[in-house]
What we know:
The chain has 173 residues and is an all-alpha fold. Helices cover 70% and strands 0% of the residues. It has one domain (21-172). It is built from 7 helices and no strands. Helix 4 (87-115) packs across helix 5.
Amino acid sequence: MKLSRLRVPLGYVVGVLVALLARPRLMSVAAGMALALCGEALRIWASGHIEKTERLATGGPYAHTRNPLYLGSALMGLGVAVASASVLAGLAVSAYFAVWYPAVIREESAFLAARFPEEYGAWARDVPAFLPVLHPSGPRASRFDWGRVRTNREWRTAAALPVAAALLTWGAL
């Protein structure tokens, strides 16, 4: 079984664990949700560039990091961990990302290299796998389109943020 198939269900398990471990305060919720919103903004930007398995996205955030969706998810996870104000919740989130994301990124890189051999090689040479560079690099061929955001169903991830914020705020009161 591909690791990428386990990533999302296990993410839900970690989410429940974080909810159980959370000891939020209003300030932690505000700070954490601000960070999580930055992560979701990055995910929306990336979703507007990607046409999964059709074309290699190299523009927008993909000119700064080859994995902006994963980076955005990591920022969202970190934001929820901060909002929870729980060291154990933070450790659970950190362990999840440390265990799953490197393997999933390697798996996806191998797929993209096989699917788009010429384009991927040039892009991977100039753009880092995860931690972004400030100045865009690589071919930058894709352009943002709101239709892609809709097609990629990014609304599902975006809809989770207000729910998490409400639950953590309720826990802080």
